[in-house]
Amino acid sequence: MAHASFKRERSPSPTPTSSGRRREKSSQGQRRRSRSPSRQPKRQKTDSHFRQGAGAATPLSACTLCLGRHPHKVYACASKSLWDGSPAYCRKNDKNRLQDPTGKILCSNWQTENGCSESVHDDKHECSGCGKRDHGAQSCPRGEKA
User: Fold this and answer.
1) I need a surface site. Which of 42, 67, 70, 116 has the fewest CB within 10 A?
2) Where is this region: Disordered (predicted)?
3) Rounded Cα distance, 9 and 122, in Å
4) Are 59 and 76 a contacting pair, CB within 8 Å?
């Protein structure tokens, strides 16, 4: 008996997704999009870097360089004078870090409202507004009043 030669063909199969499930198709043969919650529109950027809605009741922090509480980009402030026109005590170096008149880098945390609790660099705990060691920029008497 002679054997007839039959060519076996593979049946078409749907391609699975990465999770191993088949993708559902709509009646028109197009893939359905997943139903995800609608996205919120992006907020427009403003020149202000302060929280929206804070209002006038919340005073702005003092800039660590000019000690001003007026709205400005404090991270970019390079003023050589304080908010009142008197000479600034510190300056910023080429890496945007505060330096006292001798060139010593000051602790940035010390200049904040909460101060700095680290004791390993106490020599950097100096006010960027006047140079005194008992307070930081937010409590400096030379700063603009809130």
Assistant:
1) 42
2) 1-55
3) 80
4) no
Look up the pTM and report it.
Answer: 0.57
Could you read off the pLDDT tens digit of each residue along the chain, which spans 146 residues?
A: 555 555 666 656 555 554 455 554 555 555 655 555 555 555 555 554 545 555 556 789 999 999 999 999 999 999 999 999 999 999 999 999 999 999 999 999 999 999 999 888 989 999 999 999 999 999 999 999 98
| Intra-chain end-to-end CA distance of the chain, in Å | 106
Q: Phi and psi (nearest 5°) for 122? A: -55, -30
What is the C-alpha separation between 63 and 125, in angstroms, rounded?
17
- Name 99's bridge partners: 91, 105
